[in-house]
Amino acid sequence: MKPTLVILAAGMASRYGSMKQVQSFGPGGETIMDYSIYDAIRAGFGKVVFIIRAQYAAQFQSIFEPKLKGLIETEYVFQESDSFTNGYSFPTDRSKPWGTAHAVLCAKEVVKEPFAVINADDFYGRNAFEQAVRFLQTGCDTRTFGIVGYDLTATLSEHGTVNRGVCQLNEEGDLASITERINIARVNGIITCQDGLTPDTLSEDTKVSMNFWCFATSFFDRTATQFANFLNESGQELKSEFFIPLVADQFIQEGGKIKVVPTQSSWFGVTYKEDAPFVQQSLENLINAGEYPSKLWN
Question: Do 156 and 191 form a contact (C-beta atoms < 8 A)?
Answer without folding.
Answer: yes
